């Protein structure tokens, strides 16, 4: 099978000699021609040429006919695509669930390391009017206590609930003087988050020396307000710390404010007194966890 290659032997066996003269027999016999004699070399070359032709044909057949034992070529890999999943919307709290988000007396004492048995607990469902209380700079009441009505009245809040845990004389204690936990309900997550950002921005303007006047200016307390920080455990928790300064009879009094938001609830916490560690952050983190656990 030599198609496309031409005759490998050029039309005749390579090396074949032309026919020689006829061989003459003895006179008694009728003369007859003899086939041309071929040398052993010519016969061998012809044999080799035939074998080569068969080998070439075998190679062509082997290349054309697939091996039955070979594995068929794999087709293109099939791919499975799945539709993207949409995260479930966070569970929105209701007004009836707000009291259950706040820590109890024992839980608040545990979070702050308090040991006194003289604390009183008061729950309320309204914002803090703080009649007769003002600050310099203006509009910084929220930097000192929770639920300042002026920053919530037009915020879109639909409900609030607070729990105050306070000693009879919180200004002079060396341990926890008091805690005020507050949760504020909004129609949706974005509204709660927006209000938390509004309070954070307001607090930035209260950093430095802050004077609180009480009883319509009859008494005053001065605070040194530190720059805002965030909880290392949860950066969504914004912390504003201040300490009383230049105020006779009020040694080592600290006030820490915390604000955060989760789902449709804003968390507004104030912790004050002598020594309470990282209690404000721990209380806030626990409230946020309870909000996240709502179904």
Automatic annotation (TrEMBL):
<protein>
    <recommendedName>
        <fullName>PknH-like extracellular domain-containing protein</fullName>
    </recommendedName>
</protein>
<feature type="transmembrane region" description="Helical">
    <location>
        <begin position="42"/>
        <end position="65"/>
    </location>
</feature>
<keyword id="KW-0812">Transmembrane</keyword>
<dbReference type="InterPro" id="IPR026954">
    <property type="entry name" value="PknH-like_Extracell"/>
</dbReference>
<keyword id="KW-1133">Transmembrane helix</keyword>
<dbReference type="Pfam" id="PF14032">
    <property type="entry name" value="PknH_C"/>
</dbReference>
<feature type="region of interest" description="Disordered">
    <location>
        <begin position="1"/>
        <end position="37"/>
    </location>
</feature>
<keyword id="KW-0472">Membrane</keyword>
<feature type="domain" description="PknH-like extracellular">
    <location>
        <begin position="94"/>
        <end position="290"/>
    </location>
</feature>
<dbReference type="InterPro" id="IPR038232">
    <property type="entry name" value="PknH-like_Extracell_sf"/>
</dbReference>
């Amino acid at each position: 099978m030599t198609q496309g290659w031409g005759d490998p032997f050029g039309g005749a066996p390579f090396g074949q000699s032309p026919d020689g003269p006829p061989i003459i027999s003895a006179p008694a016999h009728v003369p007859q021609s003899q086939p041309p004699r071929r040398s052993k070399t010519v016969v061998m070359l012809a044999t080799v040429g035939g074998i080569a032709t068969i080998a070439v044909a075998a190679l062509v057949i082997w290349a054309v006919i697939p091996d039955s034992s070979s594995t068929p070529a794999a087709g293109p890999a099939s791919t499975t695509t799945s539709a993207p999943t949409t995260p479930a919307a966070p569970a929105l709290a209701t007004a009836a669930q707000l009291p259950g988000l706040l820590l109890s007396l024992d839980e608040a004492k545990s979070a702050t390391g308090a040991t006194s048995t003289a604390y009183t607990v008061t729950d309320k469902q309204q914002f803090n009017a703080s009649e007769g209380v003002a600050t310099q700079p203006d509009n910084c009441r929220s930097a000192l206590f929770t639920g300042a009505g002026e920053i919530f009245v037009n915020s879109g809040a639909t409900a609030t609930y607070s729990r105050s845990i306070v000693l009879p004389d919180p200004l002079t204690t060396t341990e926890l003087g008091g805690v005020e936990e507050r949760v504020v309900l909004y129609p949706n997550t974005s509204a709660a988050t927006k209000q938390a950002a509004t309070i954070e921005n307001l607090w930035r303007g209260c950093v430095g020396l802050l004077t609180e006047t009480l009883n319509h200016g009859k008494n005053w307390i001065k605070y040194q307000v530190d720059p805002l920080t965030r909880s290392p455990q949860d950066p969504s928790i914004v912390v504003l710390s201040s300490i009383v300064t230049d105020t006779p009879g009020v040694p080592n009094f600290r006030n820490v404010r915390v604000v955060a938001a989760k789902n449709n609830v804003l968390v507004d916490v104030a912790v004050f007194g002598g020594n309470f560690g990282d209690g404000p952050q721990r209380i806030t983190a626990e409230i946020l966890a309870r909000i996240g656990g709502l179904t």
